[in-house]
Amino acid sequence: MVTMDSGPAFAPVSSPANSATGGGVPTWIYSLLWFLCAAILIGLGDRLLRRQENLAANLADSPVVIPFSDYLQEQVKRKSEWNKLLETRSKALAAGDVRNFAAITYAVADFAANIDALAPGRWKYWQDLVDRYGDSNEAVRAYFALLDPQWHAQVGPKYGVFTQKLLDLSAKTPDTGQDIQLGLAQVLQQDGETALEIKVLKVIFASQPVTFKTAQALQRLLDLLRPTDPDRNKLNGELAAFAAWHNEMLGRAKWYQVFEAARVNGKLEELIRLRAEMPSTPSDSFVASADAHLIDAYLMNGQFAEGRQLRETLARFDQNDLEDCSAIAMELSPPMASAITQKPAKLPPATLVPDNIDIQINRWRGFLDSGEQALARAVAATLFVGPEKKLAKPAADLAAAARGDRRKLSPIATFRPRTDGLPPELKGATDVSFAAIDLKPVGKGVPADVHARMEMWISRDLIVQIVTADEPRTPRPKPIVKKHDVDPWKEEYFEFFLSPDCWFNFYYQWAVTSAGVTWDARRYLSDPARLVFGIDKSLELGLKTTATQTPTGWTVRIVVPRKLLIPPGPAIVRFNVRRARHVKERNLDIAQFFSWGPTSATDHQPDRFGWLVVPQ
Fold first, then answer.
1. Which one, out of 35, 195, 208, 306, has a CA that is 20 to 30 A from the CA of 158?
2. 564 near 508, Cβ under 8 Å?
3. What's the distance, Cα to Cα, between the start and end of the chain in Å?
4. Distances (CA, A) of 174 to 137, 152, 170, 179, 574
5. 22-26, 110-114, 576-580 — which is least confidently predicted?
6. CA-to-CA distance for 27 and 20, rounded, in angstroms?
């Protein structure tokens, strides 16, 4: 590109002779000739550049006057981009690549709009697309662009054809068809095409009953219909029925907010009382979501049978009203924010709209519990996709455990019945089972000759754990923590993780130091999207311990009630145990870990816990 600037000022030129004699051609004539030559050259250069660089705006039928300045360089760059778009579009057309041709066509029209928002030739590209591929879903956007009132003068006579094409395409795409129809009706209203608008609205009305999504559009149809129209009475009746349903659902939404407020306060009795106000079988997403949360409340209170029964009932819920219920919930103003604020948090936060993920997870679990594997797989196929795909592997493991296939479950400990050698705490019990677990060193630098082991005895009512830790150091580390529920993480300790529901909704964590001091809590899923857990330190499992120093290390006996931790009867739960040992290296405190299940950056991952199979 040629760049010109003003250059130095032109100076008058004269010959020495003329200056001396004062005769000949006057010097001003030379100056004039220089000025005229320069002006002619500048004009010719500008003209040649304009002719050579035919700008994108001109191709889009948008005449633009380009000043002779550095801005021309940006315009030349745009011209190059324009040419590349046209070349790519031509290649896509030649290859019969409809999707790419459509994408580039939209890009060409958008490019022209960036140069001139009113570029009058843009519509030709959309028209070309619908002329070539008007029966393809890729043309939907082009039809809507052509229906913009801006292009009414150019394509107005074709509105009827465009409308029918969009209706045909909407019938082929059930997932987005209704959105296409509603959008089309709105555009036709803006265009003042009342007859076509009525045609589209009647298609919407004929396709399904009035819903929250279509109610406003169909009310518009009722206003447009003549008194003698045969559809008027039926539409009026359906709108009235919808209004009654809407009022009922507003009441359900308010009830659900009260239920959620009670849930975060942690009172199971109040939840049961509130749930009794609704039909026993969930009939809408508000009640179904309440049932999903009530299931967790039952399980957290050790009422496993009630939770399982409610889960199997919820599995039969198959209403498709989530979108409507969510919209209705957002109508409530103001939301009951003050009623559902909880400090400090002890349970998952309240939800104002139905919790569809929790509903579907419990439906899936209900089918697993009842042995209906095919129905469980059908729910899982639509549940564990997209953002929930991260749960697919633990879901597959749980499904395998539910059908008794334990070949890929690892690590796994199967408890065996025992009648001899029982701990004194279980004297007289007749339904005792036992398993022993050896822990492995985690990571480099953790000595393999320092051992850690746990024996676990389970009866109908109690769990007895006996942990043994080697400690060859002399002198041994002195315990510091002396009170229950003071963080023991700088001590020598064992800690335990147990998920009675084998899922991410909640699990228990407890720890015991070498001196027998205990710590316990319940972890709950506070952020399902990131699988982050909150903590409820107010929980008390009822731990009792006895610590003993031995010649080779130390041992602690732990007795804890079974009620909250392991369901009665044959059960399978997820569990992990690890030991922490603190050593000094270069004046730094280094934690060495021994674990049963696999570990990672955090041990708060229920999908990495092992499995306990309990026969009694």
1. 208
2. yes
3. 88
4. 12, 29, 7, 10, 42
5. 22-26
6. 12
Instruction: Provide the residue type at 178 as one letter.
Output: Q
Domain 412-614 is found in CATH 2.30.30.520: no
Distance between CA atoms of residues 149 and 155, nearest Å: 10
Amino acid at 316: R
Give the model confidence (pLDDT) of 73-124 as tens digits.
777 788 888 889 999 999 999 999 999 999 999 999 998 888 765 567 889 9
**Which SS3 state, helix, strand or coil, does residue 335 take?**
coil
Q: What whole-number distance in Å separates Cα of residue 89 and Cα of residue 102?
A: 8
Q: Whole-angstrom Cα distance, residue 326 to residue 150? A: 36
Let me know: does 158 contact 142? Beta carbons within 8 Å: no
Average of per-residue pLDDT values in the chain: 87
8-state DSSP, 155 = H
Cα–Cα dist 580/595, whole Å: 9
- pTM value is 0.77
**How far, CA to CA in Å, does 397 sit from each of 393, 400, 404, 503?**
6, 5, 11, 10
Q: What mean pLDDT is predicted for residues 489-496?
A: 95
Phi/psi of residue 118, nearest 5 degrees: -105, 25
Look at strands 493-499 and 506-513 and give their pairing.
Answer: antiparallel
Structure tokens at 15: 């010959």
Residue found by looking up tokens 């043994």 in the block? 468
Query: 465-482 in b/e burial notation, b at 16+ Cβ within 10 A?
Result: bbbbbbbeeeeeeebebe
| β-strand pairing of 571-585 with 493-499 | antiparallel
- Segment holding 99, helix H or strand E: helix 98-115
Q: Tokens standing for 600?
A: 């990672």
The two structure tokens encoding residue 259: 């239920």
Model confidence at 530, in pLDDT bands (50, 70, 90)? Answer: confident
pLDDT digits (tens, 9 = 90+) for 380-391: 999 999 999 999
User: Going by C-beta distance under 8 Å and a sequence separation of 6 or more, which residues neighbour residue 294?
Assistant: 263, 271, 272, 275, 310
Tell me the average pLDDT across 409-428: 95
Tell me what pLDDT residue 482 has: 94
Q: Count CA within 13 A, CB hemisphere, residue 19.
A: 5
Query: Residue 143: how many CB atoms within 10 A of its CB?
Result: 22
Vertex 205: Cα angle to 202 and 209 (nearest 5): 175
Distances (CA, A) of 335 to 257, 260, 293, 353: 8, 12, 19, 11
Mean pLDDT of 590-597: 93
Angle 243-245-250 (CA atoms, 0-180°, nearest 5)? 95
